[in-house]
Amino acid sequence: MSSNVVPRRAAGLVGALLLTATPLPAQGPGVFEIFASRQQSPSTPLLGGISFGSYHGPLGIRVSGALNLTSAQDSGARGVSSYGYGGCRRPGCSRTSDRGYYREDGYSMLPSIGAWSADLDLIFAPVRPIPALRALLLGFSPYAFAGVGGYGVRPVNAADTSSATWSVGAGAHHELLGWLGLAAEARYRQPFQNDSGFVPSWQDKLQYRVGLTVSFGGRKRVAEPQVVVATPAPAPPASTPCERAPCPVDDAAAERMRDPRFAQRLIDFADGYVGTPYATSGSSPRTGFDAPGFVRFVFGEQGVRLPATVADMATIGSEVSTRIGALRPGDLLFFSNDRSATVDHVAIYVGRDRIIHSTASGNGVRYDVLGEGERGQWFADHLVSARRIVASAPQTSDSAPHPEGSDR
């Protein structure tokens, strides 16, 4: 086999590896490195190179390339340079006036490649993605790698020693500024055509490397939000107990509600505010009352807490029929402008078809008689429901209004 076959195969293998690695998408933070490397033997050249790596968790892939550049001028004598290559092979180029490309002694003034290396490595760095472990190791992150590549030396007046190689090694990375770091590693490199494996003189095949690394790309770390576990806040006492029943504010109020005379005292108290003007969203004698505000105020002064809206009031206590003879003093009557289930007005039933309420059309708190006159007939026609919250109110023989009615 020709001596040029192996170098051509090595160059082809390395080129294929580099072309295969180039299109790989970044799978995590990237690392750019400038490094210097040299094999254990002092007679081998010092190489300088760069590498690009991409990591996903503890796994990474890295492409490296390095060169040793030299010229014949370094030797100081013609034909003695260990790694210089090139000379004047064209007639009439023995003078430097030929564009300065060649010296008079026949050697090129441009640098030439004295040695090279290229590697594609798969890296395993178990500590790298775990900041806590790196902190325990004072910022150091050990790693191991295995790869394939090529290595070659081009001495003057000698055959090229390029060959395809496999390699294994280990190293450590140390963070300096988070994105800036230092790396050092040792690599055992062996040609593919050598079947001896780890030879007795394997130390001579070690290649040492030190470099300066810069991390880039990847997802920025975002501070994780603190999770605060809190018990659900209790529902407001004004609404929860009153969803299906009236709410006595204390034991004394509860006792008063069981008194058969409670309904009458409630009505007598409401009677004292007849003539109080109507006020939208009003809930006190100073500002005036709207319909729910007046009812809530009257019951509240007797120690019974009711919901703030007409719709919520229509859900407390127990439902009562609006038929004749079914209503008792103290019951709440609900009216709807469009005679639907959506209530928009509330009044307190007094007895004998009379109601007391605060109404915009009546200019405030007043009495109306269901079915009597134009106003009374309107309320009788728009009555839609009744609720009983004073369970002990005595039953009366008063005639009740018709099933339908409400406010305007």
List its salient traits:
408 residues; disordered C terminus; 16% helix; Porin; rod-shaped; 6-stranded antiparallel beta sheet; disordered N terminus; alpha+beta; single chain
Characterization of the model:
The chain has 408 residues and is an alpha+beta fold. It folds into two domains: 5-71 and 111-216, Porin (Beta Barrel); 247-388, endopeptidase fold (from Nostoc punctiforme) (Alpha-Beta Complex). It has seven helices and 18 strands. The chain has helices at residues 5-21, 131-136, 251-257, 262-271, 291-301, 310-313, 373-381, and strands at residues 30-39, 47-56, 59-70, 112-124, 140-153, 163-175, 180-191, 206-216, 247-248, 283-284, 288-289, 304-305, 318-320, 332-335, 345-351, 354-359, 364-369, 383-388. Strands 1-2-3-4-5-6-7-8 form an eight-stranded antiparallel beta barrel. Strands 13-18-14-15-16-17 form a six-stranded antiparallel β-sheet, with helices on both faces. A hairpin with a 3-residue loop joins strand 10 (283-284) and strand 11 (288-289). The radius of gyration is 49 Å and the shape is rod-shaped.
| Number of helical elements | 7
Helix content: 10-25%
Question: For the terminal residues, how far apart are their CA atoms?
Answer: 111 Å
**Would you report the number of β strands?**
18
Strand order of the largest sheet: 1-2-3-4-5-6-7-8
Which word captures the global form? rod-shaped
Question: Main beta sheet: strand number and arrangement?
Answer: 8 strands, antiparallel, barrel
Low-confidence stretches: 1-7, 16-27, 75-89, 94-107, 219-244, 392-408
Average pLDDT confidence is: 75
CATH class of the largest domain: Mainly Beta
Strand content: 25-35%
Number of domains: 2
